[in-house]
Input
Amino acid sequence: MEQDVILEIANVTKEFPGVTALSDVSIKIRRGEIHGLCGENGAGKSTLMKILCGVYPHGSYSGSIAYKGKVLELSGSSIRQAIEEGIAIVYQELTLIPNMTVGENVFLGKEPRNGPSIDWNRLYSDTDEVLKRFKLPVDSHEVVKLLGVGQMQMTEIAKALSEKADVLILDEPTSALSEAEVDKLMEILKTLKSLGVTCIYISHKLEEFFRITDTVSVLRDGKVVSTAPTKELSLEKLVSLMVGREMKERFPKGSRKPGEVLFRVEGLRALDPNDPSREVIKGASFDLRKGEILGIAGLMGSGRTELVTTIFGEYGILTAGTISLDGKEIKIGSAREAMSHGISLVPEDRKRQGLILIQTILKNISLPNLDRFSSFMRINANAELAEALKFSKSLSIKAPSVHVAVDSLSGGNQQKVVISKWLMSEPRILILDDPTRGIDVGAKYEIYKLINQLAENGYSIIMISSELEEVLGMSDRVMVMWEGRSNGTLDIAAASQEKVMARATGIEIA
Ligand SMILES: Nc1ncnc2c1ncn2[C@@H]1O[C@H](COP(=O)(O)OP(=O)(O)OP(=O)(O)O)[C@@H](O)[C@H]1O
Ligand SMILES: [Mg+2]
Output
């Protein structure tokens, strides 16, 4: 083994029933480098990382892994084993325990003790110390389920970094982070690198590879198609390596003409149902036209998700304001009522709110839409299957068939299933909360096409997005949230990244 190589993955093949997740994969990771790993949804990235940390133990795959010059033989009996070797991972799916505090999660299973009992003061002061060292803005005493997804992600990072790691694996760490938080994470990674930590970095936000990595490996269909120094790559090159073809544009052209105002929100104010002393929506107004895509931009914590879930009848306690549809005021007290008005919401945290993991792809897509396939109490199984196949094909959901359970799918493919289910329901108003988070560039494009199509057919879309380029590339108008308020709506022709940011940060006030 070469001196400067810390991890050498050689000819690794890993099979699942009906799927070869990894096929003869060989990658060398150099000591102290940040090694990027990219590839489409289902390419095998997470599987490879799970092998490196013992989720799939030695013997469950073929090929070999050398770590610090020795064969890595993780038995899979305990996740501690990889940690003791100095390999830490932040999983793609959050693994936190919702009812515990941040501190309890960070030190879960390794709580500092004072004789027989847990030393709570130390647990929290140690947590604060980790959070402070890595500049993670999370309160160690906060209960995890009350955190936003972004802060949960940061808690995961704190947990991985709470012990000394020689190799840190980050599987899509930024998918839920705002731009400012991504900047912060990049700083953290630079610090870790200067301390000699080796990092493997997975992301679907390809720009990040150019900011932070030294080397990038690309997986396609379980095979390594390239490992190259980042400085020899370009964004276009990376995309074509990933998808196996050239992609000329990131956003498909739509040809839609928004009509009259369909839906209007005026002067909405709402309280946090978990803590009614806190006002979460402090005045939001916007209108939505027929056949329009209205983007909602804003920093994390600006109230975007709170606004749409309140409108959907699922979250805030309304204290002021009106919602009207077709010019008539409506009251929405529950998600059910919202849906009876033809409003659907694709939630931000799809894993928790969107899927029945043990059910098949087919059932997950068709369950909320069963009335479309039933007559006289019978389900037309052929029509159901045909629709599900149509979506799984157009979004290229990677699976042996639509009859496999969704929990065996890769993270991004699970998201495609949730989105299919809502697209199939063809609501009058479809609210998408960050719909392409964690989805690869090729499939993003397909989702954009479907969204455009819906709008062209007269459906109205509200789309929250954390990616400025996406909001600008897809919307007819952009509403910007700032500290719980709507801070103006910009026509796309007049919008730019700078203008949106000026509103999102309150530099400019509508
Ligand atoms: N436990 C499992 N059982 C069966 N198949 C699996 C299992 N885990 C992964 N797979 C399959 O292996 C392939 C690789 O999945 P993996 O999760 O490694 O992809 P990924 O590159 O991480 O994708 P994403 O970007 O969507 O997270 C996929 O086809 C997936 O469906
Ligand atoms: Mg993955």
